[in-house]
Design goal:
By secondary structure, the protein is an alpha/beta fold. It folds into four domains: 14-148, N-utilizing Substance Protein B Homolog, Chain A (Orthogonal Bundle), CATH 1.10.940.10; 158-193, no CATH class; 198-256, Sun protein, domain 3 (Alpha-Beta Plaits), CATH 3.30.70.1170; 259-464, 3-Layer(aba) Sandwich (Rossmann fold). It has 18 helices and twelve strands. It has helices spanning 9-15, 20-32, 38-48, 54-69, 71-81, 91-106, 112-125, 132-145, 158-166, 170-179, 182-193, 208-220, 259-266, 285-293, 307-319, 364-367, 370-387, 410-419; strands at residues 198-202, 224-227, 234-238, 254-256, 275-278, 299-304, 325-329, 343-349, 391-401, 422-424, 444-447, 457-464. The strands form two sheets. Strands 5, 6, 7, 8, 9, 10, 11 and 12 form an eight-stranded mixed β-sheet that branches. Strands 2-3-1-4 form a four-stranded antiparallel β-sheet, with helices on one face. The longest helix is centred in the last third of the chain and has 18 residues, at 370-387. It starts with 8 loop residues before the first helix and ends with a strand.
Length: 467
């Protein structure tokens, strides 16, 4: 008699139809309520349901991210076909409609009827029996008329038209128009809505043969891997669902990090034996790269405010088997007198509005405001007022943010050099050739989505004057 193996509960559950749309709805409810950030919520959900099929993971990620990314446009469309406006709808119903309309307008592989039927079923499952007819009616009307949807006239109201088409609050559009140009604003809006592949960094010390084997393993697992044009140790991945599914990640030879973040370390000009302090380090990407560039020498202090953040850094230190880096709980606003003039390099990747990473953290644009930007700028200045003291004479402070806003970037750097013994130093020689024309020999670089192949990111190299 052949022995029959008992299937685990996880295996049994995975074989059933996975309730992907129900999970997506829960993500949308958590994020739109302000209880959780989208990138954290989606990552946690995919880790929790790590056993499900890759296509289910991809569906959850695509619909939840896409719905949040296009929410202003989706609400505008729903309002055209509903007597009850989205602002008056119950959270469950409005989010069911949003995710269904996203599928109808932007996902060709899902039949419109299937998107509608699933939405009605979801309304029933959530006990909104009396509103399933309303959900069905609104979606059927949109399906019939989706090619005739009317958008604001761009000639009469450009800002409103762009706001709807790109799901961007009008005040951000006006901000970029004033600081840059209307043409550049539209280029950035388009860039933020483009697909953003996973970007990884492979250890520079990895032998050529080991790297080749790593890339082959990725191909065998169905992961498309392409070297990034800016840095030879950076690669763009497609079809990579979850960090631990990427070959080499668990072993610490691969880490997920945008090239903009890597470039901030490149301009630090790290040399053997240096002492480096990263004052706002979590989750530790820049600090880890700095430690690797020290080739086992020197020391990196990766600091952050909470136990949660230092735990994240420690997890990465252990995964990457680094010995010349420590994680330390420290408040960047409080001077550590023992560290005064001890650092060759201070990395200050400071809190910011995050306007440069809207393409990956879709809900940022709905939470940030002009008032909060002023508060963030004041916080940056308070941190800089403390951490500059850690830099040795002749050492460097690397100031960086993941935003596209001169108030947070250029103006803060100007204020800093006017009030402290630092001067901007050109970073041109530290940049890849494709970006050297961007740096104006003033020691700073503004990367922009849709223009450069990175997140929106700002960096400046500030050198402490010698006595």
């Amino acid at each position: 008699m052949t022995e029959t193996k008992q299937k685990s509960p996880l295996t049994k559950r995975a074989e059933k139809a996975f309730p992907a749309r129900e999970i997506i709805l829960e993500i949308l409810l958590e994020v739109t309520s302000g209880r959780e950030y989208s990138h954290i919520m989606i990552r946690n959900v995919l880790e929790k349901y790590d056993y499900i099929k890759p296509e289910d993971k991809a569906l959850i990620k695509r619909i939840s991210e896409g719905t949040l990314e296009r929410m202003i446009q989706l609400d505008y469309v729903i309002d055209q076909f509903s007597n009850t406006k989205t602002t008056k709808m119950k959270p469950v119903i409005v989010n069911i409609l949003r995710m269904a309309v996203y599928q109808i307008l932007f996902m060709d592989k899902i039949p419109d009827s299937a998107a509608c039927n699933e939405a009605v079923r979801l309304a029933e499952k959530k006990k909104f029996f009396q509103l399933k007819g309303f959900v069905n009616g609104v979606l059927r009307n949109i399906i019939r008329s989706k090619d005739q949807i009317k958008y604001p006239n761009p000639d009469k109201n450009r800002d409103l038209n762009l706001s709807i088409r790109y799901s961007m609050p009008q005040w951000i559009i006006k901000l970029w128009d004033e600081q840059y140009s209307k043409a550049l604003t539209e280029q950035m809006l388009e860039g933020l809505l483009k697909e953003h592949p996973v970007v990884i960094r492979v250890k520079e010390s990895l032998a050529k043969e080991e790297k080749e084997n790593l890339l082959k393993e990725m191909e065998q697992r169905g992961i498309s891997c392409q070297q990034h044009p800016y840095l030879d140790y950076a690669y763009r991945l497609d079809h990579a669902e979850g960090a631990f599914m990427i070959p080499g990640f668990a072993k610490g030879i691969v880490t997920i990090q945008d090239v903009s973040s890597m470039l901030a370390v490149e301009v630090a000009k790290i040399r053997s034996g240096m002492h480096i302090i990263d004052v706002c380090a979590a989750p530790g990407g820049k600090a880890m790269l700095a430690a690797e560039k020290l080739s086992g020498s020197g020391m990196v202090e990766a600091r952050d405010l909470t136990d949660y953040k230092t735990d994240l850094i420690n997890q990465n230190i252990q995964r990457m088997n680094l010995t010349n880096i420590t994680a330390q709980k420290a408040d960047a606003l409080v001077l550590d007198s023992e560290k005064i003039e001890t650092a060759d390099v201070v990395i200050a990747d400071l809190p910011c509005s995050g306007l440069g990473v809207i393409g990956k953290k879709r809900d940022i644009k709905y939470h940030i405001s002009q008032d909060s930007i002023f508060e963030i700028t004041e916080l940056q200045k308070k941190i800089l007022n403390v951490v500059w003291q850690y830099v040795k004479c002749g050492g460097a402070l690397i100031y960086s943010t993941c935003t596209i806003n001169k108030t947070e970037n250029d103006e803060v750097v100007r204020w800093f050099t006017e009030n402290y013994p630092f001067e901007l130093e050109s970073i041109t020689e530290s940049l890849p050739e494709q970006l050297r024309s961007v740096d104006t020999d003033e020691g700073h670089l503004q990367l922009m989505p849709g223009v450069h192949e990175t997140d929106g990111f700002y960096m400046a190299r500030l050198v402490r004057k010698k006595n």
